[in-house]
C-alpha cells in the first residue's frame, strides 16, 4: 500500500482554532467544503474531521463533504460512548457504500464532557475495555449476518447491517484508526485497530512504540492484517528554513496565554499528551526540526509539537518517520484553508518522489 496523506478540518463553530485568524465561515458547510475541495485539488487523500461535544456532529459533516467531493476521504473521529455499536456500524456502512468506499474512522476513547451526552463511564481502563468490545462488535456487524452478542458493555440480538460497507463482498471494511499511549490503549491498538496514530514525538519515541506494538500484536494474538502506523503532527512549512523558524517563533509568541480550548481536562491527563508536554524538558528542538515550544504556551494534541522548516527540511523529517514504518500522515497548519494548498503544493510532491540518496 502507498503512503497516505491527510489534512485536518477542525470542525468548530468558533474562530481562532490553534491561531487560525479566519473570522468567517466556521461551522458552515460552505467553509468546510472549501477546505475539503482544496485538499482534493492539492494532492491530499482526505482529512481528519475533529470531534468534540459542542462542535458540529462529525458524522453529519463528513456525509455532507463526501457528497460534495469526488475523491476526498473523510477520517471521521467518533467516540464509543457517544455511539451504540449497531447504530454506528449501520451509519458507517451506509456512508461508505454511498461514497464508494471513502470512509475512514478514527476511534477516540478519551474523555469529552461525557455527562453532556449520557456517557457514565469515566475510568480510563474501563473505557478502553469498552472500546475493544465496540470494535469487535462493529467488525462482526460489518461482516456477518444475524449477529447476537451479549457482552460486558453491549448487547444485540439477531442484528444484520444492511447495506454492507463498499466492497464487503471482497472482505473490505472501513479502515479503523486509533490513538492512545497507555498500556491499556496499546493493547486495544495491537489487537483491534487497523492504524495506530502517534502524536509528533521524536524518532526514538516513535521507534520504541512501533517495536512494542508489533511485539504486542504477536503476544496478544492479533487476528487481523498487520497493524499499520500513522503520524498526526503540525507542519509549519515556508520557502526557506530561516523564514519558517522566524514565523514559528512569532506564532508561538502570539499563542502564549491563549491555551487550546479544545484540550479538556481528560485530554490533559492522557498519557500521550503528558508524553508530548514532557518533551520540552529534553530541548526546544529535537531531531532535525521538531519544535517543542508550542506545548509550553498551551498547545495541545497535534498543536503541542511542530515540524518546522523549508519543504526539503520537513520532507526529510517525515521521511525519517517513514523509515520507522509510518505510512499514514495527518498533517496541518493554520490558517487551515490557505495552508492546505501551500503545504500540499510544496510538500506532497517531494514526499512522493524517491528519497534522495
Describe this structure in words.
- The chain has 357 residues and is α/β, with parallel strands linked by helices.
- It is 40% helix and 18% strand.
- It is built from eleven helices and 13 strands.
- An eight-stranded parallel β-barrel has the order 1-2-3-4-7-8-9-13, surrounded by six helices. Strands 5-6 form a two-stranded antiparallel sheet.
- Helix 3 crosses helix 4 and helix 10 packs across helix 11.
- The protein is globular and about 60 Å long.
Query: Any idea what the radius of gyration is?
Result: 20 Å
Largest sheet: 8 strands, parallel, barrel
Which range does the strand content fall in? 15-25%
Q: What average pLDDT do the residues reach?
A: 93
> Could you say which structural class the secondary elements and strand pairing correspond to?
alpha/beta
Inertia-based shape: globular
Order of helices and strands: EHEHEHEHEEEHEHEHHHEEEHEH
Give me the side-by-side strand order of the main sheet: 1-2-3-4-7-8-9-13
Helix content: 25-40%
Regions with little confidence, pLDDT below 50 for 5+ residues: none
Helical element count?
Answer: 11
Spatial separation of the terminal alpha carbons: 22 Å
Number of strands: 13
